[in-house]
UniProtKB/TrEMBL annotation:
<dbReference type="GO" id="GO:0006683">
    <property type="term" value="P:galactosylceramide catabolic process"/>
</dbReference>
<dbReference type="InterPro" id="IPR049162">
    <property type="entry name" value="GH59_C"/>
</dbReference>
<keyword id="KW-0378">Hydrolase</keyword>
<dbReference type="Pfam" id="PF02057">
    <property type="entry name" value="Glyco_hydro_59"/>
</dbReference>
<keyword id="KW-0326">Glycosidase</keyword>
<keyword id="KW-0442">Lipid degradation</keyword>
<dbReference type="InterPro" id="IPR001286">
    <property type="entry name" value="Glyco_hydro_59"/>
</dbReference>
<feature type="active site" description="Nucleophile">
    <location>
        <position position="262"/>
    </location>
</feature>
<comment type="similarity">
    <text>Belongs to the glycosyl hydrolase 59 family.</text>
</comment>
<keyword id="KW-0443">Lipid metabolism</keyword>
<dbReference type="InterPro" id="IPR049161">
    <property type="entry name" value="GH59_cat"/>
</dbReference>
<keyword id="KW-0325">Glycoprotein</keyword>
<dbReference type="Pfam" id="PF17387">
    <property type="entry name" value="Glyco_hydro_59M"/>
</dbReference>
<feature type="signal peptide">
    <location>
        <begin position="1"/>
        <end position="23"/>
    </location>
</feature>
<feature type="domain" description="Glycosyl hydrolase family 59 C-terminal lectin">
    <location>
        <begin position="496"/>
        <end position="669"/>
    </location>
</feature>
<dbReference type="GO" id="GO:0004336">
    <property type="term" value="F:galactosylceramidase activity"/>
</dbReference>
<feature type="active site" description="Proton donor/acceptor">
    <location>
        <position position="186"/>
    </location>
</feature>
Length: 669
């Protein structure tokens, strides 16, 4: 026993804790871990979402070795986060939080399984962890699916065909097996459609693909499954979003797997890590959820877009190579490096007497992993839902191992302390093993800590060399889009906020504009939020004040077609409709406008330009202080327009409506 306590004191003495001398005795409690009477629910894994939307946009532009290092921290087993599930957006050509992601079928007679970056990301994840589970979920749909209505269920056979095409394309073109498919992110579900989707998948030999519904709230899906046995038969997992670690009676009564299929969504500092640590345990302890999936995987989008830095790590500077392995990565590792989908939770209450929680899992072959968290209320608030008050105090926890675990002699110990007071966190450190004496061991737990105790010896805290230091976006940036076989369909650093801008080969051009950037969405999609009525892609540094933007433009739509270039663009993502800035428009009818907003309602100047469709023209926008001027084909067209606000923002380009148009030789200084 003396040896045991010596080991425990060693294990718990890494780094400063509150002084014990003369302090009140610790709250002490005992907990029994036993598998003699069977096990709890099967563990399905911890994962993260890429998409919903365009959250991995900047990741693809990173140069090696930095891009591979980031991917290793996310997916490589026993390295960093070691994620067990990757959920991706099935692109729908529409705004889905931080940008649009391209559909594999822009038009009814169009199929292309190489657009965007989610195919690439899934392959990179599989390359590192062949066992990772893959989920696809649509946030939006191309407009043709709704036949003019903003609704995907009027023609459920078309919608099912569209989704099944994506699953088949993943296999045919990328050798990716999709494990789970969702219905419509955080929007209504249709029982008829879900049944038809199951039927269509089975008809195409996709019986192994499981259905998650409804990626929204626990209800009404749970109730409808209780009264509709056919629906109950085809839904495999009930997935709820931001459940606040709680479930509802009907969901439990269905007997189905319960997942928090989107959660976290919190700024990735130590409070975000505290949120993540708390819900990873308590989603099971309080809510019987056997999987928790973070939105989002990696914050690889301009930070000033909505929900900046709400990823498990940050990689938003491909131009510099800088990235940051944030604390939520190491909180994830406490679970993922010492469990596998297919393990089982033990049947145990899981609440600690002094506040906090623990879960225990086993592979059924003698291995045991215990994860303990003691996150305090103010240091573990997630972005949603509101967190009821609770208190956590320092405590001594004594665990009794029973059943097949009675013979365990030592447990490896991994520890994190989120140092809110000291500002000095200790993340995922291996401590001395704990000796188990006749099935018993004790731990002194402080507040805001995470412990993993495990029979597994495979844990590793890996590190790459420090990435390059941060740098702002280049103040002189150009792209001529002259690339014959681009690795991705979108030009680097352009972040589409409505519409989709793709590399295009202009086969009929005599030579100057063979390779261009083209806006390709010609019909308003079935939207998830309020996309703009115009298309727009932003680029650059949000802090820019004075700038000159130049771009060659080509209007393809006669009569009422139009395009713009812009500066000081102040908004995007779900707020794209309210975007302001300095917008220089030219139209196919020969007129031009200068407006203070994307909607074109705040007109600062207008007149005749002589621009026509199906011809190339060069636009230049110059903004200095409170004054803006514009050139057409190198000649002044308008000048001395007063611009008061916004005072800074991105550069941008786009079109008047959902219409085809081309851009070339973009330059911002």
């Amino acid at each position: 026993a003396a040896l045991l306590w010596g080991t425990i004191l060693l294990a718990c003495s890494c780094g400063p804790g509150p002084p014990r001398v003369g302090a009140a005795p610790l709250l002490a409690a005992t907990y029994v871990l036993d598998d003699a009477n069977g096990l709890g629910r099967e563990f399905d894994g911890i994962g993260a979402v890429s998409g919903g939307g365009a959250t991995s946009r900047l990741l693809v532009n990173y140069q090696e070795p930095y891009r591979s290092q980031i991917l290793d921290y996310l997916f490589k087993p026993n390295f960093g986060a070691s994620l067990q599930i990757l959920k991706v957006e099935i692109g729908g050509d529409a705004q889905s939080t931080d940008g649009t992601e391209p559909s594999h079928m822009h038009y009814e007679n169009d199929e292309n399984y190489f657009r965007g970056y989610e195919w690439w990301l899934m392959k990179e994840a599989k390359k590192r962890n062949p066992k990772i589970k893959l989920i696809g979920l649509p946030w939006a749909f191309p407009g043709w699916i709704g036949r003019g209505e903003n609704w995907p269920y009027d023609y459920p056979d078309i919608t099912a065909y569209y989704i099944v095409s994506w699953i088949l394309g993943a296999k045919q073109y990328h050798d990716l097996d999709i494990d789970y498919i969702g219905i419509w992110n955080e929007r209504a579900f249709s029982s008829k459609y879900i049944k038809l989707l199951r039927y269509t998948m089975d008809k195409h030999g996709l019986e192994q693909v499981r259905i998650i519904a409804s990626d929204n709230l626990w209800e009404p899906i749970s109730f409808v499954m209780m009264i509709d046995s056919e629906l109950h038969g085809v839904v495999d997992v009930i997935g709820a979003h931001y459940p606040g670690t709680k479930t509802v009676p009907n969901a439990l009564l269905t007997g189905k797997k319960l997942w928090s299929s989107e959660d976290y969504s919190t700024f990735n500092n130590d409070v975000g890590a505290g949120c993540w640590a708390r819900i990873l345990n308590q989603n099971y302890v309080n809510g019987n959820m056997t999987s928790t999936i973070a939105w989002n995987l990696v914050a690889s989008y301009y930070e000033e877009l909505p929900f900046g830095r709400c990823g498990l790590m940050t990689a938003q500077e491909p131009w510099s190579g800088h990235y940051k392995v944030e604390s939520p990565i190491w909180i994830t590792a406490h679970t993922t490096q010492f469990t596998q989908p297919g393990w089982s939770y033990l049947q145990v209450d899981g609440h600690l007497e002094g506040g906090g929680s623990f879960v225990a899992l086993t592979d059924g072959l003698g291995n045991l992993t215990i994860i303990i968290e003691t996150m305090s209320h103010n240091h573990s608030k997630c972005i949603r839902p509101p967190l009821p008050n609770f208190s956590v105090v320092p405590q001594r926890a004594t665990f009794y191992l029973r059943g097949s675990f009675y013979m365990v002699e030592t447990l490896q110990v991994w520890h994190s302390r989120l140092g809110f007071e000291s500002g000095n966190s200790s993340l995922f450190q291996q401590l001395h093993p704990v000796n188990v004496w006749r099935g018993r061991f004790s731990l002194d737990l402080n507040v805001d800590e995470v412990y993993t105790l495990t029979t597994l010896r495979t844990g590793q805290k890996c590190g790459c060399p420090e990435p390059p230091p941060p740098q702002p976006f280049p103040s002189n940036y150009r792209d001529d889009f002259n690339i014959r076989n681009p690795p991705f369909s979108e030009a680097p650093n352009f972040a589409d906020q409505t519409g989709v801008f793709e590399y295009f080969v202009n086969a009929s051009d005599p030579g100057d504009h063979v390779f261009t950037l083209r806006q390709v969405v010609v019909q308003r999609p079935i939207t998830w939020v309020s996309d703009a009525d115009q298309t727009i892609s932003v680029i650059g540094n949000f802090k820019w004040v004075n700038m000159t933007v130049t771009c060659d433009i080509y209007i393809e739509k006669p009569d009422d077609g139009g395009v713009f270039i812009a500066g000081r663009v102040d908004n995007g993502g779900i707020y794209v409709r309210r975007t302001k800035g300095v917008f220089f428009w030219v139209f196919a009818d020969g007129t031009y406008r200068v407006t203070g907003d994307l909607a074109g309602e705040k007109i600062l100047m207008k007149g005749l330009a002589g621009v026509r469709d199906n011809a190339w023209h060069t636009l230049t926008l110059n903004i200095q202080g409170n004054s803006a001027s514009g050139l057409l084909n190198g000649y002044p067209l308008w000048e001395n327009v007063t611009v008061s606000s916004p005072g800074n923002g991105w550069a941008a380009l786009g079109t008047r409506s959902f219409e085809l148009a081309q851009f070339d030789n973009f330059h911002v200084e």
